[in-house]
Target: Aquaporin PIP2-2
Amino acid sequence: AVIAEFVATLLFLYVTVLTVIGYKISSDTKAGGDECGGVGILGISWAFGGMIFILVYCTAGISGGHINPAVTFGLFLARKVSLVRAVLYMVAQCLGAICGVGFVKAFQSAYYVRYGGGANPLADGYSTGTGLAAEIIGTFVLVYTVFSATDPKRNARDSHVPVLAPLPIGFAVFMVHLATIPITGTGINPARSLGA
Model:
């Protein structure tokens, strides 16, 4: 399960940070790009939400598909995972994120340095408090969706509404990215922010 969390977070950061850097390359007018080029905020949001959907789907049966220390911490507080498992997951997620971004840096070192490595900067015009509030609310939306999508009582009560848990979780990540990329670049995942 710990290996699954490590690999999933590695793949998550690898694909998403490459998407961010690819967008910055194609929209950099100083380097021959087009201001309207690349995938844009919509494409970046799809990359994050889509990868979460894929990776939660792939790892849910192995580790629960957390891929995020905030999710693991929330599940720990709800007594759904033990302290030892929570700590091991968080360490694996952070190391996976660092390794995932390490691969990006190894393959795209010049672009990685030029475009900030997919880090989460606070946008001009926003205060630190606004950025913090955006991240708190965004992380809440994600963790709340995880709890709702994986609630066993809901599955029993609403059996007529089939729920594929990774789908609403991926959509939550997608929607939060649409809302908060212009403010903070969207963290909502401490491992993602640490790795980048």
